[in-house]
Fold each of these.
Amino acid sequence: VVPLPTLRGGTRLVPRDSILFLQADGDYVRVICDEERFLMRGRVSDLAERWRPHGFVQVHRGYVANLRRAVEVRPRLNGTATLAFPDGREIPVARRKVAALRKELGT
């Protein structure tokens, strides 16, 4: 369970394995879960560093993926890729992150 500080000063307890990915939104981070979304103050790069031992990897300057929940890496013609999740959502993978992601996944 991850404590996520809410914008109202409270703390929401979210099972880490329910989180699909994090998305930067200005000074905030959108936490995208199976059933819900949360908005919290912070930076995706900080969360990527703290949550790395739990399978989270920054795949784009604005996205951190839970690799334990990703189901497919889909290459694009321009050297980038997208990372797909079980519910059909996709997030971009930056060109400079594709090789490191493949290495991380062992492919």
Amino acid sequence: MSKYISLAIAILLLNNCASSEVEYAPASEPEAAGYTEQQIADNRYRVIFTGNDRSTMETVQNYALLRAAELTIQKDYDYFRVAERNTISIQDSGPSTSTVVSTGTGRQTNCGLLGCETSYAPDFAATEIHNAPDDSRYSSNLEIVMSNDSDAANDDRYDAREVIDNIRASI
């Protein structure tokens, strides 16, 4: 009995792993899940976070902001401003739906005293249906400008350390 309980627990754990959202990490290749950044000027970067097909739009946007804040601190700045923001939905479509129907016809001839009779009958009929569902995922693209200016009148500036603390607390 304990074997079945252990098996059920293992299946539940594997199912939880399979349904989890994307890991916060660098992307292993272009357009893969994770973050990338590109320097545009001394204090200006493009930060991209791409999710997988289980990531919510909110998670992808938060992870892009988190990476922007971490990058700001790494480059010895305290604040960043989002100069441009864009979140897109990427459709990853697999093979299109296809249906294959194969049939074969057999011919049978029976001959008797009065002549021959030929009949045709299906030997087989087979149907295959290939259906690959479309996967959609999100990518959040930020162009940020970093600074050490703590001007409180500038409402569009993010405090990088505050962003890191708030987003990491919600992960």
Amino acid sequence: LTFIDQGGNFEKVQCPGCDQDVTNQWPGWMDTASASQFSNLSLTMPCCGLTTNLNALRYVWPAGFARFALRAQNPNIGSWLPAAGHSVLEGILGCKLRQIYARY
């Protein structure tokens, strides 16, 4: 399990329950999870008490944890993969996918 980041597109991290900005707390949570090789991603949000996990946080722009990644470098599609293509890939792989538009 590894964290797939958005590179230079990173803006902030928000609570999935109340949308509170938790960007300042996030590095500490990542350090704690990293110490266990990301075997435990769970946390309780300090803002609203929601029990959640690091992958469920709202990353602006999207980011998240994955066991694998499909990468398209400089695909010249102009933006996000269209919904139809996204759905096709999910069907082929048999799992939900999260698009992460990274800029390095």
